[in-house]
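Ticket #4471: structure output looks truncated?

Reporter: J.K.
Steps to reproduce: submitted the chain below (399 residues) through the standard prediction queue, then opened the result file.
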Amino acid sequence: MITGIAALIASRRAELKRLWFVVFALPIIATLVILFVAAVLDWLAPPSYAYRPGLDIFSPGWFAIFGPLLIGLAVAVVVTWIASACISINRFSLHAIYRKRLTRAFLGASRPLRNPDAFSRFDEDDNPAMAALWPKKPDGSWPKRDMKEWRPFYVINMALNIVSTRHLSWQERKAESFTVSPLHSGSACKAYRRSDEYGGKKGISLGTAIAISGAAASPNMGYHSSPAITFLLALFNVRLGWWFGNPGAEGAQTYHLPGPAFALRPLVDETFGLTTDENPYVYLSDGGHFENLGLYEMVRRRCRHIIVVDAGQDPDYGFEDLGNAVRKIAIDLGVTIRFHGLDMLKMRPRKGIIGAGYPYHAIGEIDYPAADGGKPGDFGVILYIKAGYHGIEGAGIRA
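Returned output as attached by the reporter:
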C-alpha cells in the first residue's frame, strides 16, 4: 500500500518539496506501521504457550502464530514457481481473446471458403503466417516488381517498450519503433530477424501482429506509461501486449521462441515498468505508443508516395499524432517534412455548406534530398487525410 502511494505521488509529478517529503516520510510511516502491527500481535499472543525446542531465539508461542503464515508463504512460493514454469505469460493475458476476435472479424471475413469450429466459429486457417504473405515462387525466386505479380507488401508497426532504459535521450519516449513484415521482424535500434523464424516454428502470424499493433491497453505503453497505471493494469491483468525474443544479440537464443519459458521475470518487469531492450525478451505493444500514424517507418524506407489517414481522437485539431511523427522523423532520420493546407483542417461551422473551403486533407512534402544528398527532384509526397465528423455532412453519412 505504501509503495502504491509513493508510485501515485510520483506519477502525478509532484513538486520537489513533496517528493522529498515522500522520500523521508514514507519509510518512517512504514516503520511505525510495522511496530504497531508487532505490538498488536504481541498483545494478542497468549502468554501460556509451552516451550518448543529449536525456537530459542523466539518467544514462546511464536510458531503457533506465525507458523501458518510461513507455511502459507512457502506454499505460495512453490505454486508461483510451478505456475511460472508451466503457464506462458503470453497465454495468461487478454491478448488471445483480442486476437481471435480481430482475426475472425477481419481476416476471416476475407475468406469465402472457411471451415470454422461449430461452437466458437473460429477457423485456424484465418490466421496465416506473416511469411506466407510474400511467398517465393516454385523456382525459389521472389515476385517481380511488375503489375502482373504485384501485391501489397505489409509493414505492421509496433512499439518495443523500454520504460526503464538507461539512455537519457529515450527516457521521454520509453519505446522504440518495431516492425513486422512478410520478410523481416525487428527494430532498427536492435536488429532484424527473418519473419518465418521469429516468434515460433512457423514464425509470427498475421493475427498476432495485428493484435499487438492494436494493443493499446497494456501496463507498459511507451511514452504514455506511468508507475501507478502500470502497476494497476498488470495487477488486474489488463495486458494486450506480447513478449517475444529480443531480435538483437541479447536474444540470439530466444528470438525463435514463442515467448519466455519462465513467466515470473517478465511479469515483474511488466508490473513495475522495468522493460528494456537489453534482456533476452522484449515487450511489444501498440505501435501508437511510439508513433501512431505509421509514417516513421515509411520515411525510413524512403517511400516516395505515402497516404496517411489520421483517425485519432483530436476534437481541437491539435495534430498531436502528426506532430509527434514529424518531430521524431526529423530528429532520428534527418528528414524534414513540410505540410501545405493544415490551417484549413479545422472544425466546420454547424450551419453551412460543404465546399472547397473545408477540405479533409492536406499535402506534405518530404525533403529527402536534404538528408540524403540526392537529386533536387527526389522529394516525397504525403497525402494526409484527416477523418472527422462535423454534423454538416451529407445524409448518407449523418444517418
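Triage note (M.O.): checked the attachment and the full C-alpha cell line is present. The longest strand covers residues 361-367.
Status: closed, working as intended.
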